[in-house]
Write a structure and sequence with these properties.
The complex is a heterodimer of chains A (224) and B (354). Chain A has 224 residues and is of the alpha/beta class. Chain A is 39% helix and 23% strand. Chain B is built from 9 helices and 7 strands. Chain B has a 5-stranded mixed sheet with strand order 2-4-5-7-6, with helices on one face. In chain B, strands 1-3 form a two-stranded antiparallel sheet. In chain B, helix 4 crosses helix 9.
């Protein structure tokens, strides 16, 4: 569970982002202006900031720059209607880590938030239960029934991502993002290798199946 | 964009100019001798040579003074003006031309500079206003869309999968996406057509971009049971503007999925060719007649005049403009009843975009 500050002047949009994040195991707080965000940041510790760009008084760029001066490591995610190149460039220059263009996909928002948190090494303690299979992200352990199945961190991360979004296909490159700690020159074939290993380890488990989506990637299908 | 951009400007004085002024001076200098000299033909030969040499010197001094004056009072200011106009045409409105005379002796060139400065300042503020306007419109349209979409998708999570409610919510989500793409298309197209947008050329992986974009259509191909064939190598490096190319693929893919009927098939293939990269997007939709193919890249043209399949007739116009901007090509082959195939070629080497 991570503490997330949502800075967005559109009340309705702010509410829904907070609601969604809270529904999915995060602890989100709303701020409707940059000034309010500063005040909240004095009183609370946040693990991540989601911010709009076009806001009254202090805009997102200025806000991000200020935050960066005080806290150089906190992940900042911009959610904005502006998709022009200049503002993107400006966003990254002011120290923003990721960028999403409105209207956003809520699943994608959560995916990106989680990726940013992982990159910032914020423990995101989550448990996933599929049939008899139980995944614990803090202990990096998987058990099927009473039997614990030994997995490496990478295998765990890939499987966790796939099972968190059943029936959604992830490209091999997207799954490779789970290895963010190793250099980007790693071949996509590495993902195939991990998938084969996972399939072998869970061959006897019939709660889910990992399907190959030809030419694109993989998806997890939960057996009904 | 500028047809004269590779022509070297030339404004120094050539040997021919020198020869002409020499001849002219010789004629003028020898006029008195012609008119009043009685023994002109008996002119001493040695004197004549000295006289000629004298004229050579005089004319060269004359020519150099004239060319120097021309250079200072005309060529130099014009060169400054030329450089300034070049900058402005590339979208830099911070140009200011220093007047040549500050002592009240105002020449035509000074006035021209002053007018130029005023013009550029006006253009600059109009440009800023236009950019702000585009950003504002985009914000005003997309903010409510974002609210609609996020509430619908949150509700959808609560709704029972496969229920009528879930289906209705999906329709709301799909329509907001369509609306958002429309807003983006309109604004981007206006931007590309009204000004020289500077593409932000980067080296990036096209395979990743294509795969990620294809995956955003997963719901549609599942719903319509479309057989999707993807032939994309692990990596394809490309040097263009990734943001603009997203719009190209988004429009081509969304067309392909839109026009392919239930149970049809869509093929997306990308490969390295000799001098670039080729991407094919093929569908088994209704196809187009030859006449339609000729017109699809025009603005607001829709093959289906009944507007039965929603669209706005802007997507392909934008695709066409972007691809031209990236120095690539796009071609279509289509047959009525058999589907269409769009083929995009992009140069592999970084091109200098003006």
């Amino acid at each position: 569970m991570a503490n997330i500050l949502v800075v967005e002047d559109d009340t309705k949009f702010n509410q829904i982002m907070c609601l969604y994040l809270n529904n999915h195991g995060q602890r989100a707080q709303a701020a409707f202006q940059a000034q309010e965000a500063y005040t909240k940041m004095y009183n609370h510790l946040f693990d991540l900031i989601i911010s709009d760009v076009m806001m009254p008084n202090i805009d997102g760029f200025e806000f991000a720059e200020k935050v960066r001066q005080i806290n150089p490591t906190i992940p900042i995610l911009f959610v904005t209607a502006r998709d022009d190149i200049q503002s993107k460039r400006q966003g990254f220059e002011s120290g923003v880590d990721d960028y999403m263009v409105k209207p956003i996909d809520m699943t994608e928002l959560l995916l990106r938030v989680k990726a940013l948190l992982r990159r910032a090494n914020v423990a995101d303690n989550q448990r996933l239960e599929i049939g008899r299979t139980l995944m614990d992200s803090q202990a990096v352990s998987i058990s099927v029934g009473k039997e614990a199945i030994p997995v490496t961190v990478r295998e765990f991360n890939i499987l966790f991502k796939l099972l968190s979004y059943p029936n959604k296909t992830f490209s091999r490159a997207q799954l490779l993002d789970e290895f963010w700690d190793i250099d980007s020159s790693t071949s996509l074939r590495a993902v195939d290798v991990y998938i084969t290993k996972i399939r072998n380890k869970f061959a006897s488990c019939n709660d889910f199946q990992i399907m190959t989506v030809h030419g694109l990637g993989y998806k997890a299908v939960i057996s009904s | 964009m500028n047809p004269f951009k590779h022509l070297q400007t030339r404004n120094s004085i050539s040997p021919w100019d020198y020869l002409w002024s020499f001849l002219l001076l010789t004629v003028i200098a020898s006029l008195p001798a012609f008119l009043y000299g009685k023994r002109f033909l008996q002119l001493n030969n040695s004197y004549f040579k000295w006289y000629l040499l004298y004229l050579v010197l005089v004319s060269s001094i004359f020519v150099s003074i004239v060319s120097y004056r021309k250079y200072v009072t005309f060529d130099l200011p014009i060169r400054h003006l030329n450089q300034a106009t070049k900058k402005v045409s590339q979208g830099d409105f911070s140009v200011y031309l220093q007047p040549i005379h500050n002592d009240g002796n105002i020449s035509d060139l000074d006035q021209m500079f002053e007018n130029f400065n005023t013009m550029v300042a006006e253009l600059g503020s109009a440009e800023t206003m236009k950019n702000d306007f585009v950003a504002n419109v985009s914000h005003e349209f997309k903010a409510p869309l974002a609210v609609i979409k996020s509430y619908a998708s949150t509700m959808q999570e609560e709704a029972e999968a496969g229920s009528e409610l879930a289906g209705s919510l999906q329709t709301i989500i799909d329509q907001t996406d369509k609306m958002a793409l429309l807003v983006t298309n309109v604004l981007k197209l206006t931007k590309i057509e009204t000004q020289a947008v500077q593409p932000n050329v980067q080296d990036y992986d096209l395979s990743r971009q294509l795969t990620d974009l294809i995956l955003t259509f997963e719901k549609i191909w599942e719903e319509k049971q479309i057989a999707l064939q993807v032939e994309i190598p692990d990596q394809l490096r490309l040097q263009t503007d990734p943001e603009m190319m997203v719009l190209v693929w988004q429009n081509l893919l969304s067309n392909a999925f839109k026009f392919t009927p239930m149970g049809g098939s869509v093929t997306v293939a990308a490969k390295q060719v000799d001098d670039g990269i080729e991407v094919r997007v093929k569908d088994t939709g209704p196809g187009m007649s030859e006449e339609t193919v000729k017109k699809i890249f025009e603005k607001f043209y829709q093959g289906d005049q009944s507007h039965a399949t929603s669209g706005n007739g802007l997507g392909l116009a934008l695709v066409d403009r972007i691809i031209h901007l990236m120095a690539g090509t796009i071609s279509v082959s289509s047959k009525l009843g058999q589907g269409s195939e769009f083929k995009v070629w992009l140069p592999a080497k970084k091109i200098n975009i003006i």
